[in-house]
Write the structure tokens for this entry.
Amino acid sequence: MSVSSFRGSIPIARALTAAWAALVLEASCSSSMRSEGLDPSTLPAEVRDDYAVFARRCSKCHSLARPLTAAISDDSYWSMYVTRMRRQPGSGISQEDTAPILRFLHYYSLEQRRQGPAAPASSSTTTSRSESKRTF
Ligand code: HEC
């Protein structure tokens, strides 16, 4: 396969995004990679149960890093995403799961906002999730 056809034609950001996507795919194939979530002991006690539901339900098809680094901080977006994920074939996410999951994501968004712009700088496009700095 010739590489020269796309040399120079793909902006770096796109290439990074592709590399990131490949990583995510790889992670989702090896279900033994469970270390990327949050450490529940760092969470307030009242959030832990919600986190447990989130961690179980949202790690089935991709790593938890995917939602955790998605830089979504708006509850209505989360609601939309969780609905979309729930509707994926075989998601295993029930309607009852959505409340605790959304509660955790709400908490998490607030927490992220409080800690300031720790997320990767969103300079150019909306796809700023090209690299994951999180190494939990
Ligand atoms: C049944 C498999 C499955 C489950 C379970 C699942 N996801 Fe996903 N998720 C996907 C797939 C496939 C994609 C990529 C396609 C897409 O964006 O719709 C994705 C992508 C995402 C993205 C990135 C979307 C984007 O635009 O880049 C986020 C955020 C996300 N999932 C969050 C979640 C959350 C939160 C949960 C738990 C409520 C969850 N996922 C559970 C399959 C799943």
Q: What stands out?
A: The radius of gyration is 16 Å.
